[in-house]
Amino acid sequence: MRLALATDRPHPAPRTTAEAVRREMEARYYDPELRVRDIARLLGLSQEELSRRYKRETGTTVRQALVRLRLERARDLLRQGMRIKEVAIVTGWSTQHHFSNTFRKRLGLWPSAVGAGS
Q1: How far apart, in whole angstroms, are the C-alpha atoms of residue 4 and residue 36?
Q2: Dihedral angle sign, alpha carbons of residues 1, 61, 25, 111
Q3: Are 42 and 77 in contact (CB under 8 A)?
Q4: pTM of the entire structure?
Q5: Per the structure, how many domains does the chain have?
Q6: Model confidence over 61-117: pLDDT tens digits?
Q7: Which residues contact 47 (CB under 8 A, 6 or more apart)?
Q8: In this structure, what CATH number is given to the domain that contains residue 108?
Q9: Cα(103)–Cα(118) distance, rounded to whole angstroms?
Q10: CA distance linking residue 50 with residue 40, whole number of Å
Q11: Minimal CA–CA distance to 116: which of 89, 76, 86?
Q12: Are the CB atoms for 71 and 63 separated by under 8 Å?
């Protein structure tokens, strides 16, 4: 059985590895089981090759980009008034505790400090 790629959707083919990775992450960031190896497999690359290409193209790692994407989505949802526990779940965090601590470390404030009107 073939896995459906986010890139199977009707839009222009990605020109770079980073663009392909971004599309896959956008399509699956909510999955707490999503790992770099899964994205590599979906793109037909080894994890090492994917990591090398992505780092060369962006200056960051795939994992860092996935965390950043999840935090961006989480901040948007918190600003819309969604509860912290729900945000943690729908943005792919394994626990609310892990989400809250990562949010604070990366963004400098607790999720509870972000809300509608922020």
Answers
A1: 17
A2: positive
A3: no
A4: 0.84
A5: 1
A6: 999 999 999 999 999 999 999 999 999 999 999 999 999 999 999 999 999 999 765
A7: 36, 37, 40
A8: 1.10.10.60
A9: 15
A10: 6
A11: 76
A12: no
